[in-house]
């Protein structure tokens, strides 16, 4: 299971504080020490752990407790919110170009699962978003990559543009764009060669492809099992190519979680998708909040937190109603009410 080791450690730590009717500074200190050790053991970036613990401490000590939550539950709420924030708050939407086709460029190290992920992404775009993608075999350095993408295209019944291994990857990408326009395909997914981020020539080639096709998304595919190394790779590719997001592969087998918990904080780019198995339909949109809840084993506490938040909103709504009746409703109150309406719309979509 994803994050199994980390989840066990954090859930044991949280269990100790969960039912406490009063949480002292010492309690928070002990809990954050345990959390810090658990995150470091999970191969989370040291600086990321340091910042995370600092934020949790600041928010957990002496903060106002919501009605219907015990102080212990309130502290868990803080940990959950900061964990969600660490992985990127909301799930990220995939870009859609104003004028089709939308271009996605797939980059990453060799062996990260990039070609398979390219097929999985095309499958997801068609199934979930009803799009018609074109796969582009621009990895001319690994002959098997062209064959692999062709095979995936046949399995999924998705067209593949390939010109063998002798053509220039930049030209292949350009001609694929023309083909997509002619055939009214709305997504072009370019599978580039896996390379070391220290390989200057190949990195320059990626920059040229990017300059030519002007992708709407540049996705870095990284193997989540490599932990801290995945973060270093992400930082390097981001510096050179300004990626728009990350796709984590093999997240289902990552018992530690170091990559998933560090990449967003280090690169400031969201994790957009996660590979949760080998099958072609096992690519999922990455939901930071759900992942945080899962790590903390928070099903029961989550419902309590939601109830407490509803109570607060209800109480505030009654206060505002009273203000309106007594004509003491201010512009600030109006803005707050607009914010609540916007939140309701957000939950509907």
UniProtKB/TrEMBL annotation:
It catalyses: GTP + H2O = GDP + phosphate + H(+). It comes from the Bacteria. GO terms for cellular component: signal recognition particle. It holds the Pfam family SRP54_N. Keywords: Coiled coil, GTP-binding, Hydrolase, Nucleotide-binding, Ribonucleoprotein, RNA-binding, Signal recognition particle. GO terms for molecular function: GTP binding; GTPase activity; RNA binding. CDD domains: SRP_G. Its EC number is 3.6.5.4. Residues 270-283 form the SRP54-type proteins GTP-binding domain. Signal peptide: none annotated. InterPro entries: AAA+_ATPase, P-loop_NTPase, Signal_recog_particl_SRP54_hlx, SRP, SRP54, SRP54_GTPase_dom, SRP54_N_sf. Residues 298-325 form a coiled coil. GO terms for biological process: SRP-dependent cotranslational protein targeting to membrane. The keyword Ribonucleoprotein applies. This is signal-recognition-particle GTPase. It comes from Gracilibacillus halophilus YIM-C55.5.
């Amino acid at each position: 299971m994803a994050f199994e080791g980390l989840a066990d450690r954090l859930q044991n730590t949280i269990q100790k504080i969960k039912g406490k009717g009063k949480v002292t500074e010492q309690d928070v200190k002990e809990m954050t020490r345990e959390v810090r050790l658990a995150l470091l053991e999970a191969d989370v970036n040291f600086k990321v752990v340091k910042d995370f613990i600092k934020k949790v401490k600041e928010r957990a000590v002496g903060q106002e407790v919501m009605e219907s939550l015990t102080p212990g539950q309130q502290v868990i709420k803080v940990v959950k919110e900061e964990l969600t924030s660490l992985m990127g708050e909301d799930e990220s939407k995939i870009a859609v170009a104003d004028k089709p086709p939308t271009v996605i460029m797939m980059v990453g190290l060799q062996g990260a699962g990039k070609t398979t992920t390219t097929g999985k992404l095309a499958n997801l775009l068609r199934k979930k978003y009803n799009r018609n993608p074109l796969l582009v075999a621009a990895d001319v350095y690994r002959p098997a990559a062209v064959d692999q993408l062709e095979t995936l295209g046949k399995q999924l019944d998705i067209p593949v543009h390939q010109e063998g291994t002798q053509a220039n990857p930049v030209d292949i990408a350009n001609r694929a764009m023309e083909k997509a326009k002619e055939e009214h395909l709305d997504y072009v997914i370019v599978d580039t060669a896996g390379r070391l981020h220290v390989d200057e020539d190949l990195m320059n080639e990626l920059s040229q492809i990017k300059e030519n096709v002007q992708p709407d998304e540049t996705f870095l595919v990284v193997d989540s099992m490599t932990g801290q190394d995945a973060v270093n790779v992400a930082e390097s590719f981001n510096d050179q190519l300004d990626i728009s997001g990350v796709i984590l592969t093999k997240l289902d087998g990552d018992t530690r979680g170091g990559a998933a918990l560090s990449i967003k904080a280090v690169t400031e780019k969201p994790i957009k998708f996660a590979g949760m198995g080998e099958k072609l339909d096992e690519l999922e949109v990455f939901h930071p909040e759900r992942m945080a809840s899962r790590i903390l084993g928070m099903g029961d506490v989550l419902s309590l937190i939601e109830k407490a938040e509803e109570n607060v909103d209800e109480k505030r709504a009654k206060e505002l109603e009273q203000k309106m009746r007594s004509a003491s409703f201010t512009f600030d109150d109006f803005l707050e009410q607009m914010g609540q309406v916007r939140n309701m719309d957000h939950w509907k979509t």
